[in-house]
Design a protein that fits this description.
mainly alpha, 240 residues, globular, 0% strand
Amino acid sequence: MDINEEQEIKKEFQLERVILFSDAVFAIIITIMVIDLKLPENLRHATAGQVRDAFMELLPKFLAYMVSFFLVGNFWVRHLRIFSFLKDYDTKLIVLNLAFLFFISLFPFAVSFISGGPHLMEYTWGIFTYVGIIFLIITAQTGLVHYLIANRERLCFSTEKMDAVLKWKVQRLNYIVVPVVFLLMFIMIIFEITPKTLIYVMAFYGFLIGRLGKKYYPGNQRTPFLKLVYSRVKLKRPKA
């Protein structure tokens, strides 16, 4: 084994460690969120009505967990797509990834704000905190994609597929959308506007990103991503 081959193996091993660490953070976040879903311990000798009431009190927490699980899962899928292009890494990439994981790790804290009861929409700071953390995650992930796009020749392979899979033409709009959302939340706090408005803001954001994705990247984008993953598997198969 020559020096170059040894360095390549070491580099691949270190990159796998980065990916495994990121996956572990996602798994721990989901586990922490679901731990809070439990009925009171004093229901051992409870009546059917008491169990039903306890379950109804637990329902907001379950709904908050379900929505948050979907969001965390969506961020994980995007993270998988981003890292599927990597052939190398550097210190700045590690820092950007850690910043992204930091904001992701705040999800259990955010969920605790909105799962306190049936009137969760009245908890202004809870809703603002939850939505704010989501858009901080979006910003951090956009920065991660931006760095890879800017350094694609040095850090990535299959660079011709990156824009189609990562949808950079759409994702870069987050640099404009996110500050606007935070400004809107600040205005809502000053003028005591109901936080329910943020639901419509998030719905419009999802609609806008979806429409722009179809405009700039028509057709199903899952196929090139699956081909990319398959090509990586073929490259890692040991030669006979």
